[in-house]
Amino acid sequence: MKIKPSIAINDNGFLFDPNTGESYTANAVAREIIFMMKQGLSIDEIRTRILDKYDVDETTLEKNLIDFQAILRHYNLADSTDL
Known about the structure:
The protein is α+β, with helices and mostly antiparallel strands. It is 47% helix and 12% strand.
């Protein structure tokens, strides 16, 4: 899964979809993940970076990544291919 190229995100976690005019706010970790996705990092690279930076176990992170992907799909912010 990749964030659609048209989606804009600023350093404060404000996302804007110019196609729909919708805007969203992401928390700090979500913002980091979105930036990594926009850079083209794989899910394994993202997982490794988050595990290195934050005190979270792999099981919790995996569940949260799956949930986050579902949210991105629901709001049509990402393409439908897997990360």
